[in-house]
Design brief:
Blueprint (H helix, E strand, L loop, with lengths): L16 E5 L4 H12 L3 E5 L3 H11 L6 E3 L7 H14 L5 E4 L15 H22 L8 E5 L12 H21 L5 E7 L7 H4 L11 H12 L9 E4 L7
Parallel strand pairs: 1-2, 1-4, 2-3, 4-5, 5-6, 6-7
Helix pairs in contact: 1-7, 3-4, 4-5
């Protein structure tokens, strides 16, 4: 009986160009790794330049083109600087993953300082807006935008008013963007992961039961599967929960 011939799978995403924000850790890092495995060329950004260089060195072994560029998503000038660098290196953008986000300590509204409120809103909501607005001129039919919103985008947890407000607002932005871009053939995915084992839990629930949570790699695998769908199909809302529920 003849042996089956082994063939190496050619990725549908080969040579695609993907921008991932918040790429230095957690879900962003996991998505960057998953896209590198698909042979995507990567633009990686985060606020921590040292961590970003480390990730860039790790993924360089995939023999793909990588642009690592620190960016403060809250600052329009920093975003402009990022996209000047992107336009120098690449002529288009096929995938945008708006992943960067921050949380805050468990504080009720009466104890939530205005500067903390503003920092969370500016990062999670305004940052997503600024990056998306800058990216759209580089995106053509068949491109995909993934906004990492978390299940907090349509649920409420006490003590997390700024975080919840930012994610609810980002869901509204995502849903509006989807309808605006539908005629242009650009897909917009609202990613809503439940409890995932990342460092963000150190901020609002240090004692959270990490062993019951999903891994960032699990979320990344689902995201890549959604992106790899044919251009005439889309996942509009990608909600992923641990089997134990909401913890």
């Amino acid at each position: 009986m003849p042996r089956p011939t082994s063939t190496r799978r050619t990725s549908q995403l080969l040579n695609h160009i993907a921008l991932v924000t918040g790429a230095s850790r957690g879900i962003g890092l996991a998505i960057a790794r998953a896209l590198s495995a698909e042979r995507c060329n990567l633009i990686l950004t985060a606020s921590n330049a040292t961590a970003l260089r480390k990730v860039s060195r790790e993924l360089a072994s995939a023999k793909i083109k990588i642009l690592a560029h620190p960016c403060d998503l809250r600052d329009p000038h920093s975003v402009d600087d990022l996209f000047r660098a992107i336009r120098r290196e690449f002529k288009r953008l096929d995938i945008l993953v708006n992943n960067a986000g921050i949380a805050h300590a468990n504080l009720t509204v009466d104890k939530l300082p205005l500067p903390l409120w503003q920092d969370v809103i500016d990062t999670n909501l305004t940052g997503t807006f600024l990056i998306t607005q800058a990216a759209l001129p580089l995106m053509k039919r068949g491109s995909t935008i993934v906004n990492n919103l978390s299940i907090a985008a349509h649920r409420v947890f006490t003590g997390s008013a700024a975080y919840i407000a930012s994610k609810h607002g980002a869901l509204g932005l995502t849903n509006t963007l989807r309808e605006e871009l539908r005629p242009k053939g650009i897909r917009v995915i609202a990613l809503m992961p439940g409890a995932t084992d990342t460092k963000i839990w150190n901020t609002f629930w240090p004692q959270a039961p990490r062993k019951k949570m999903m891994s960032p790699a699990t979320i990344a695998a689902a995201v890549v599967s959604a992106i790899r769908l044919p251009p005439n199909a889309t996942v509009e809302t990608l909600e992923i929960l641990p089997t134990v529920g909401l913890l």
